[in-house]
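Per reviewer request, we include the raw input and output of the structure prediction for the construct analysed in the revised manuscript.
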Amino acid sequence: MTTSTPIEPSRTSPRLSPLLRLLILTQLAFNIGFFAVLPFLSAHLGQGVGMAGWLVGFVLGLRTFSQQGLFVVGGALADRYGIRPVVLAGCVLRIAGFAWLGYAERTGAVIGAVLLIGFAAALFSPAVESEVARQAVVHEEAGGQRTRVLALFTVAGQAGAFVGPLLGALLLSVDFRTVCLAGAGIFVLVLAGHAWRLPQHIPGRQRVRLEGGWGALLRNRRFLALCCAYGAYLLAYNQLYLALPDEVERATGSRSAVAWLFALSSLLVVTAQLPVTRWVGARLSPRRSMVAGLLLIGAGFAVVAVSRPAGWTGTAGLLPSAGFVVLLTFGQMLVAPVARAWVPDLAEEGRLGLYTGALSSVSGLIVLLGSSATGSLLDGGLPPALPWLVLAAVPVAVVGLLPRR
């Protein structure tokens, strides 16, 4: 496929195809259903089921592994069988997993339900994401902008992640089972919509055998370099859940402000992603966009590192954290859509699902290893600025790994 270059958006940019509109709405619905349940899962496991803290962490880790770690499997299956059966199967498993979780009261049942929920996403997410990327290339060839399509996909996902917890919090006033059944109900609607509207055969999509693609992927140094850069971005983003709460608690004595900072990040993505993508797409190549995004992310960590020796507390102490969130979010806007838009240029013909899934799986492994190291840094009794300086250096260091073309 051709390499994406910065182009001035046309005044007569083509409209999104019905398939693209369906897939983007799919991402919105997926995240509403998922995030209606996920934010309340750990509290339910600890208080409702009575699990010990270490077991709650273990179960949540299993969910991440069964989802992120198996994306590459779901992507390969989409290449082999097409996206329709894989997406429909994933929706069925997600419905069953949410319903099971709502009624699960024993540890074994909870673990089974959580694994089913994670594996469902490992099926449908890479299938949808790979087809969005492929359709974005088609849209570009018709005169549109590839990264704008991926930006719309990102905005839809972020909007779902914003609305989902609000719906879950509302339903939690009844009980956690109601939340789970509502999440299952959303996926019933998604399943029905896709059974009706998702084509049996998508023009231009080839089906390939499962075997034969792994060796070429592992030898594709440019793609693996992109995975490393994307993994560094995800590791930085993961600090919203790891390093940021500790910093907020240090500054204010509680973690309540973290929710507001999360809302700030979501609001920025929903309102600014498309204008940022439009502006950057007309001026920067994919590589330069990712370089700029990674440098912004590094700058966000540096803001906290520089301020830490001052030991600010209260409202003033929250300013570095807010600066970190803003810079990280703008960096995300530059990195995430471009990285996914770049994959079709690096993927082997007919194996875009495999490569899309591998991007998530490889970067997820990087996050897993990096988060362990980050936790050691934060708990190691080091000078307060040092962990943040190390975290600032990671996205800057991977800039040199990005493919030149």
